[in-house]
Amino acid sequence: MNFLLFLFFGIAPSIIWLLFYLREDVHPEPKWMIRKVFLWGMLATIPVIFIEMGLRGAIHSVLPSPYAFYVYMFLGVALIEELAKYAVVRLRVYKTSAIDEPPDVMIYMIVAGLGFAALENVLMLFGLGPLAALSDILLITLLRFAGATFLHALVSGLFGYFIAISWYNKKYKALVSITGLVIAVFLHGLFNFSIMEVQGLAKVGIPVIILFTLAVSVVLGFWHLRKLKSVQR
Predict the structure, then answer these.
(1) In this structure, is residue 233 part of a structural domain?
(2) Within 13 Å and on the Cβ side, how many CA atoms surround 140?
């Protein structure tokens, strides 16, 4: 029974945020493509777990503590996860007709991010064990809904904004995209670091500030991209 609960409550936060963000798309995307990107986002979680495990050991064998932990949080986790979500969009939808206007990039990056978060949530709930109480399942689900799942959607959306903007500046296209990646990785890593290592009010305050800043940035990003005309990628 808990197996079904883990699946339901693990995926539910991503579905709720997905339905919310799909409202931002003035011209709705094909449902089959949304499902495809969401699924691939989930599948991307699997190799990422093994890559992160390998990098953790490699980084800790080279760098002393606590530097190894800092590097791992930002480069071994945040960077790998942001690249994985981008790879889903790049390989599965980027060159298709599904992306026919600038906001679409943000939409599909968010979808990939939510798919990624969905399997993360499921695996975390499985970690509670087969005898987990419903109250514990609900608590983890709520925390993931307001925290990690929301974060994945926002940082992916912000990165998607920079990718879309890069289309309009061919000379600095790579620089703009990399800037978006760096910002996404930094905020992702800082969020993870704050909830794991920071104590006191800052343990809550820093993540809240990060999420609020990202949420405002994503809203403004959608607003800006809607004003732009499509451009050849």
Answers:
(1) no
(2) 23
| Single pTM value for the model | 0.95
Reference 217, options 132, 142, 160, 136; nearest CA is 160
What kind and span of H or E run contains 21?
A: helix 2-22
| Residue 133: burial class (beta carbons within 10 Å; 0-12, 13-18, 19+) | exposed
Is residue 45 in some structural domain?
yes
Sequential DSSP letters for 46-113: HHHHHHHHHHHHHHHHHS-TTHHHHHIIIIIIIIHHHHHHHHHHHHHTTTSTT--STHHHHHHHHHHH
Domain count, the chain: 1
Tens of pLDDT along 95-136?
Answer: 888 888 899 999 999 999 999 999 999 999 999 988 889 999
Whether residue 116 is contained in a domain is answered as yes
Summarised one tens digit per residue, pLDDT across range 22-55 is 887 777 889 999 999 999 999 999 999 999 999 9
Report if residue 122 sits inside a domain.
yes
More confident residue, 35 or 65: 35
Q: Which domain holds residue 51?
A: 2-226
Total residue count of the chain as it appears in this document: 233
